[in-house]
Design a protein that fits this description.
With 732 residues, the protein is α+β, with helices and mostly antiparallel strands. It has 29 helices and 27 strands.
Length: 732
């Protein structure tokens, strides 16, 4: 018996022989027929080695899959599992590279074969992994197989990069581009496609937000060209955010040839396997970037500015970006920075619609004890706007004339997109008509389908022509020679334009963002002033100073007439009502313009003036929500819920503030302890055998007594349990 034959024992022949067949790509499967047939002929070799044909199993599930990773090779995984279970006597492969091109997978198979006494055979011989010499040979073959894959990949990638460095690498082109006969990149020959893509960039230049571009194009009924992977046919779909974002962020539309925009990282998955993740590479780290490689829809500088705007519009959880300009009344949203810590100040809104810029990021994110500072929005915005108008005044006339020309040019460009859309719709309708006319009248099965398609195209044509007509009606009015002459002599009122009702909040914010990089403010409370500076786009700096309102002086030496009147009205009026009466009598506070509830409450606290609450409750007077919240020890949300359910009564005054009625009966219905014979709604439902909704319905109908049980500032309803719980089961 030969040395090879001596390795095969009866125990091996009693098990199966597995023949592993694999090709790396589908192209190899289709073209490398000889290699595939050679691998299938290993079945004959297994029979020659002594295995019966019925015990030879062919594993060819991994045809067209690479051997560099075993995670996506079901055939190899089943082979390893069978070896581990001791079902395999020999594993046959034409060469080691067919089984694995990764040493981790290869040595895992060798270890299992050594433990389960499984042989490995290739074109060169028969090996036993438990034998040192055979394992050494198999290990060298595995190392060479892995190195071969690396060398092949390096050689191919070097040629690929060399071709890419010259800009000659043929890549998949986005919609709006195509290759000509000389393999050069040119604009799509369809003018409607060019106009639609140009409209995306034009609108973003005006709106500065990808989402606003989507909304405006959908409102105008403009469609965008799209093209699926591997196809040359262009389809027209409604504008969507992914489509608009692709147009704005793809460097091909800036005329650049780019190679290496992404890279692959190998990372361990939670299950322990190795996965490959594709991540984006920053612009300055792109491997190859050739400017002016082909005609672009925008310049490279515009493309970089677009990326910067999109990045600034995005606001992550901890982002310091300004965010996109929105419809809120805060004109300096995203532009104000704290002069103490340097962070971007947030916008706060009061229930009266007032704005305030607050630096509380350290309080929210880092556990600081208090916010850095805050400043009133109206005062800061007034100072900044005055500086903006002072800066713009010398260029107001020129800017106005340029704006009129730009508006007319923008309308012409936008109308061009509508005109091409209508022309495309007319062509498609005419094409559908010709197809219908070419159909034989007797072939009704086809004729009906063509007729429906023709009708749909005609409807699309009518919509496109209606959109074109509506767009033409939006053409800005041309100024006459007299009006232009007056404008040059009289000037332009930027204040009127900025504050015009037709100018939206977003447009005002976009104007300020075009001029201002940021505004830094430092508040000095003892001096009641705020100082800072405006950093303009371009680096120029303008210092600003503003005076803050002082809080009213509520010293004990306050006007005794005011103090006496508050004492007289204390038990019968709320703080708001007292403030109204003080203002009616013409008794202003020391520093404020007029009295309000906060000022009255401050005077009461400094003078130790307390209400006689029991007497007031007996008379059934009304308290504000803030006073009732403090008196009853419940949350404002509970008071609103009680008002809605009718548990308490109240009304709104002329200023929209709620006043609720507090009396002894209401106080008796609010307790901290659950009395005997009462139960909360869930427990009452369990005790009576009905649903909680049934109990709530009886409460709403007034059939059950209800109290409110406090637990801290939270309250829960409780009902009195009847003596006979079967009353709950009666029909409602």
């Amino acid at each position: 018996m030969t040395e090879t034959g001596s390795k095969i024992r009866s125990g091996h022949l009693d098990r199966e022989a597995w023949v592993y067949v694999r090709q790396s790509t589908m192209t190899q499967v289709q073209r490398n027929n000889e290699s595939t047939q050679l691998q299938y002929r290993l079945v004959e070799r297994a029979v020659m080695l002594g295995w019966v044909a019925e015990s030879v199993r062919v594993v060819d599930e991994d045809m067209g899959r690479s051997g560099k990773d075993a995670s996506n090779r079901k055939g190899f995984q089943s082979l390893v599992a069978a070896v581990g279970l001791g079902r395999v006597g020999v594993v046959l492969g034409i060469e080691v590279s067919r089984l694995a091109r990764n040493n981790a997978d290869w040595y895992q198979l060798l270890d299992l074969c050594a433990m389960t006494d499984t042989l490995i055979a290739d074109a060169d011989g028969l090996y036993h992994p438990a034998d040192y010499n055979d394992r050494l040979v198999l290990g060298l073959k595995g190392t060479m197989s892995e190195a071969e894959l690396h060398l092949l990949r390096s050689r191919l990638n070097a040629g690929l990069r060399n071709k890419a460095a010259r800009g000659a690498l043929r890549q998949g082109l986005p919609v709006g581009y195509e290759y000509d006969e000389d393999n050069s990149v040119i604009l799509n020959r369809d003018e409607a496609v060019q106009a639609a893509i140009g409209e995306v960039f034009s609108r973003f230049d005006q709106l500065r937000s990808a989402r606003q571009v989507v909304v405006s194009m959908r409102d105008d009924g403009l469609l965008l060209p799209r093209r699926g992977g591997g196809t040359r046919r262009v389809r027209w779909d409604a504008a969507s955010y992914p489509a608009v974002h692709d147009f704005l962020t793809n460097p091909a539309y800036a005329g650049a040839f780019v190679f290496g925009r992404t890279k692959q990282l190998r990372r361990a998955r939670p299950d322990g396997t190795i996965g490959v993740t594709t991540v984006d590479v920053p612009v300055d780290a792109w491997e190859i970037c050739i400017h002016d490689h082909h005609p672009g829809y925008v310049s490279w500088e515009t493309y970089l500015a677009t990326l910067a705007t999109l990045r600034a519009n995005w606001r992550g959880p901890n982002s310091e970006a300004a965010g996109a300009a929105r419809e809120g009344p805060a004109l300096l949203q995203g532009l104000v920075r704290c002069g103490r810590c340097g962070r971007r100040m947030q916008v706060g809104y009061s229930n009266r619609g007032k704005t305030r810029y607050i630096c509380h990021r350290a309080l929210i994110l880092y556990g600081a004890h208090h916010a850095c500072q805050s400043v009133g929005g109206r005062r800061l915005e007034a100072v900044v706007l005055a500086a903006v108008f002072d800066m713009l005044e010398p260029a107001a006339i020129t800017a106005t004339l340029a704006g009129l020309d730009a508006a007319e040019a923008a309308h012409a460009e936008r109308s061009r997109a509508f005109e091409l859309g209508a022309e495309r719709a007319r062509y498609e309708a005419e094409r559908a008509r010709r197809q219908f006319d070419a159909c034989e009248p007797e072939n009704r099965l086809v004729a009906r389908t063509l007729e429906r398609d023709w009708e749909g195209r005609l409807a699309a044509q009518r919509r496109a022509e209606a959109d074109l007509a509506a767009q033409r009606l939006r053409q800005p009015s041309r100024l006459s020679e007299e009006e232009l002459g007056w404008l040059q002599h009289a000037g332009a009122d930027l204040h009127a334009v900025f504050n015009a009702p037709t100018t939206t909040i977003r447009e005002r914010k976009l104007l300020l963002r075009a001029l201002i990089d940021h505004v830094q403010v430092t508040v000095d409370h003892p001096a009641a002033t705020a100082r800072g500076h405006i950093v303009w786009e371009g680096g120029a700096v303008t210092e600003i100073t503003m005076t803050l309102p002082r809080r009213a002086d509520y010293a004990p030496s306050h006007d005794p007439v005011v103090v006496d009147l508050i004492g007289q009205l204390l038990d019968s009026h709320s703080d708001e009502q007292i403030a109204v009466e003080l203002n009616r009598r013409g008794l202003p506070p020391v520093s404020a313009a007029s009295f309000n509830a906060r000022i009255v409450a401050h005077i009461r606290r400094t003078r130790n003036m307390s209400r006689s609450l029991p007497t007031r409750h007996q008379s059934g007077k009304y308290l504000t929500l803030l006073e009732a919240q403090s008196e009853l020890g419940v949350s404002r949300a509970s008071l609103h819920r009680w008002l809605t359910s009718g548990f308490i009564t109240g009304h709104q005054d002329d200023q929209g503030r709620w006043l609720v009625r507090i009396d002894d009966d209401l106080q008796a219905k609010i307790t901290d302890q659950l009395p005997t014979g009462w139960a909360r709604i869930p427990q009452a439902a369990t005790a009576t055998g009905v649903s909680t909704q049934t109990i709530r319905d009886r409460i709403n109908r007034g059939e059950l007594e209800v109290i409110q049980v406090r637990n801290g500032r939270h309250v829960a309803q409780a009902v009195r349990l009847p003596a006979h719980t079967d009353l709950f089961n009666q029909a409602n």
